[in-house]
Amino acid sequence: xxxxPIGSAVTRFRxxxxxxxxxHLLFVAWVALRPLDDVLWVTAPNLQPLAGIRADLAxxxxxxxxxxxxxxxxxxxxxxxLPMAGGRLQVPPFVSLVRTVAAGAFxxxxxxxxxxxxxxxxxxxxxxxxxxxxxxxxxxAVVPLTRARLRRRWEAARGAxxxxxxxxxxxxxxxxxxxxxxxxxxxxxx
Length: 190
Prior knowledge:
The structure is a single chain. This protein has helices at 6-32, 51-58, 61-74, 78-86, 93-114, 125-161, 173-177. It has one domain (9-35, 44-157). By secondary structure, the chain is mainly alpha-helical. It is built from 7 helices and no strands. Helix content is 64%, strand content 0%. Helix 4 crosses helix 5 (93-114), helix 4 (78-86) runs parallel beside helix 6 and helix 5 (93-114) runs antiparallel to helix 6 (125-161). Residues 166-190 are annotated as: Disordered. It holds the Pfam family VanZ.
């Protein structure tokens, strides 16, 4: 039985990434955009960077770590799912990091702004900072190593596919040349 072509594997990888991304975004919308139960009063919006983090840390190490951890972990999977949904292997690591963190920051900002219309929720700039930091940390921890592993696997599969009709591996000049492209709709003139 022949292995599946490389192109179809990449297509399945992208489709899986997009499906997981959609599922995670639906989960985030459910968690972040539902009204709080029986809110008697609402705190003022926090527009001063790091003020909320300092207030969380003032509650004690356990409670502060829990609240900061929630902020870091809510959107952290986007650091992996956004590049996975794109499905590109040949992207410089810094470009991938910047693109992923920027997209995640815009999503976090959108969620924060949508929360202004939800009873009991207010804008918190520290939430935006923690969500973005979580995305960056998840991306740095997973994506570069995974892409390197997938690139090695892809190169090995490409190398195995480059064989002559008789089964002998390509050597010398033929190895870099690849196969001759064929365009079926171009006809030879009479």
